[in-house]
Design goal:
It is built from 17 helices and 10 strands. By secondary structure, the chain is α/β, with parallel strands linked by helices. Helix 13 crosses helix 14 (347-357).
């Protein structure tokens, strides 16, 4: 049953409490009689509470001045579920299993919609699993809103794009990127894992108490969280963003074909802008870097879904012209399936030649397969796979994209789009698809879990059981998850 429409069962004896404003209010029509709200003044303040109570009543909600047994929903701001239960205990009030503890965001969304919106994880105030309040007559020691244990592995967490902790994860990602630029893998991974786990939370962290029981949050990470909670920003992150080396490396690595070694070289030579690098006659660029500079503005701009779908159609048309039974799947942020059989090594060269004849090929780097040399799955988590692949820049004409969604530039009828094509045999298809679908941290944790918890080795080609000394076959991602003893995580839930 929808929690918004759960009516309290049985008669209730009203137990009035003088807990906040109890001034007389104008009478309004109550539209949603099954809901009885109480807005907690703690951390909110009298003025804001009075304003929200009055506004909610105007919208047809029943809002009590005093907390009583008739209340079905407690609305709070900047409080965790544990803090609300602590407050209820002090008031000597029993927390019913039917009582919803909600963040004020639910009430604000509901008033905006003109009706109670569906309660989701982002609205519910979370109570720690280790919550152990002192005994109290009628008080539940195991609250109705308990947090499930959070896994240290991203492959055991469902992470959508609904990130309720951007203020922290954005900070962690800046710090992780800075350590990556310094080639400090340990510190980079520390902040990457912290960002990953906070992205999976169905609630916003508002106090250090909310971090209890959450894995991957070391002392340095918690110091950053605490400073952001107290000051609204991290001094360490602020220093990094203002650091000349960080700014230069972020700019240089945004160029297609430029890595850390090249960035370090350019920085030591005194370069701080791309225009100076482009105009320097002494520098020698690789083919990839030349293409990166030539199409820089297009390549650093976001690819819209319409553009991605247009590229998908372009690829399918070319592939199916030579192999109608080939299975074509678009991965990355725009995953969608096509249909399959065995692949041939000459397919990619044929596709590349077709695009070249049509004037659509702006850059191409074909890497031949080394798969026959592979004996067991790679131990390197971030190792590139051994399949035949090509790194491309294609010319996407605007007429292939819906006119209202394409990025039009004055005097230009096309946009340069980065595309990587990977060719794999059908028996490795599921492993390749899994390896190319999900964030970098999700893939790392999937392989780490396989190694440490299942005594297996997983990469983009195969799953090897070290105990049984055999390869495990799979025709789908679901089968791979099943071999690992994991619940299946949908592609859109791998944004770790």
């Amino acid at each position: 049953m929808d929690p918004l429409h759960v009516a309290p069962s049985g008669p209730r004896k009203k137990r009035p409490r003088q807990l906040g404003t109890s001034m007389a209010s104008p009478s309004y029509d109550i539209k949603f009689g099954d809901l009885v709200l109480f807005i907690l003044e703690k951390k909110m303040g009298t003025t804001r509470r009075t304003f929200l109570m009055e506004l909610a009543r105007r919208k047809g909600f029943r809002v009590e001045n005093e907390l009583s047994d008739s209340v079905t929903h407690i609305v709070a701001e900047n409080n965790s579920g544990s803090e609300v239960l602590d407050w209820l205990q002090v008031q000597n009030i029993r927390a019913s299993s039917q009582l919803e503890l909600l963040d004020v965001s639910w009430l604000i969304e509901s008033m905006g919609a003109g009706k109670p919106v569906e309660i989701t994880g982002k609205h519910q105030l979370v109570v720690r699993t280790d919550y152990s309040a002192a005994p109290n007559p009628g008080f539940q020691k195991t609250p109705p809103l308990a947090v499930k244990k959070i896994s240290q592995y991203a492959c055991q967490r469902r992470t959508t794009l609904n990130n309720w902790n951007h203020i922290f994860t954005d900070a962690f990602e800046v710090l992780a990127e800075n350590y990556e630029f310094k080639e400090n893998e340990v510190s980079c991974l520390e902040f990457t894992r912290a960002a990953s786990v906070l992205k999976s939370l169905p609630f916003t962290i508002v106090s250090m108490r909310d971090t209890e029981g959450i894995p991957c949050l070391g002392d340095r990470v918690k110091c950053v969280i605490e400073e952001i909670i107290e000051d609204g920003e991290s001094s360490e992150v602020k220093a990094v963003l203002n650091d000349e080396r960080y700014q230069s490396f972020k700019l240089f690595t945004s160029v297609f074909g430029v890595g850390l070694k090249t960035s370090e070289k350019w920085f030591r030579m005194g370069f701080r802008s791309l225009s100076k690098i482009r105009s320097d006659k002494t520098l020698k660029f690789t083919r990839m870097q030349k293409a990166g500079f030539l199409y820089y503005e297009d390549l650093v701009s976001c690819v819209t879904r319409a553009e991605a779908e247009a590229v998908g159609v372009l690829v399918k048309e070319a592939v199916w012209a030579f192999m109608p039974d080939a299975f074509v799947t678009m991965t990355g942020g725009f995953r969608s399936p096509g249909s399959t059989e065995d692949e041939e090594q000459q397919l990619l060269p044929k596709v590349i030649n077709l695009w070249e004849r049509k004037g659509l090929l702006l850059y191409c780097d074909l890497v031949e397969s080394t798969f026959e040399k592979l004996k067991v799955p790679s131990r390197q988590v971030d190792a590139l796979d051994h399949f035949q692949k090509c790194f491309l820049i294609l010319k996407l004409h605007h007429q292939r994209v819906d006119s209202d969604k394409s990025i039009q530039q004055e005097g230009k009828t096309w946009k340069a789009i980065r595309v990587d094509l990977v060719m794999c045999p059908y028996e490795q298809y599921a492993f390749a698809l899994l390896g190319w679908t999900g964030s970098r941290q999700f893939e790392r944790d999937l392989r780490r879990y396989a190694t440490h918890d299942r005594k297996m080795m997983l990469d983009n080609h195969a799953l090897y059981d070290k105990t049984k000394r055999m390869f495990l076959k799979a025709e789908s991602e679901e089968e791979i998850f099943a071999h690992l003893g994991l619940d299946y995580i949908e592609p859109w839930e791998r944004n770790a």
